[in-house]
Amino acid sequence: MAQRHRILIAEDHTIMREGLKALLSTEPRFEIVGEARDGRETVDYVLRLKPDLLLLDLSMPLLHGLEAIKEIRRGGSRTKILVLTVHKDEEFILAAFKAGADGYILKEASHAELEMALESVLAGQRYISPAISHLVLDAYLEAARTLKKESSWETLTGREREILKLIAEGHTNKRISDMLCISVRTVETHRANLMKKLDLHSVAALTALAAERGLINQ
Description:
Elements: E1 5-10, H1 14-25, E2 30-36, H2 39-49, E3 53-56, H3 65-74, E4 80-85, H4 90-99, E5 103-106, H5 111-122, E6 127-128, H6 130-154, H7 158-168, H8 173-180, H9 184-198, H10 203-212
Parallel strand pairs: 1-2, 1-3, 3-4, 4-5, 5-6
Helix pairs in contact: 2-3, 7-9, 7-10, 8-9
């Protein structure tokens, strides 16, 4: 006989909790070992019952689901955690995985998707509902862009920042060369290096960055 996976359901709404229990109980490979009605009870049950998987709602009384995940992980539990929630915001998604969740699925998901999520997480894989996966990707890409921008900014020399400020203020290469007592060719070289380092390709883009960094008044 195939191994039965022990599952704990944590959901404060009775109808939803009983519905999940009835749904999963029809699957011989799943065994419902407990039902938690609040965050505190969830942590206690996980640490005491040691289920294979916790199916967890985030909006729980007494202790929010995110805090419950953190306490469970601090307690050393290796129970897989699949978040089942209505929250679609990227902040909740990222916070859940950062806290220690293994999967994130929406309550609007189908029975088939729930089963797939359960199987994926139990198999040691991450799972996120396709309906919201783009939010995580967008957040990742934005974070990567921000990190790249920060890293690029840190590579600028004091002279390059000085020239960036003057460019953003509208001065020509000749005027900048006169102000700094350097050749026009040197100014052009600094301008080219600025654009290359910052991956910016116009004076307007350089000006916007200078304003963002407080080099000039917007």
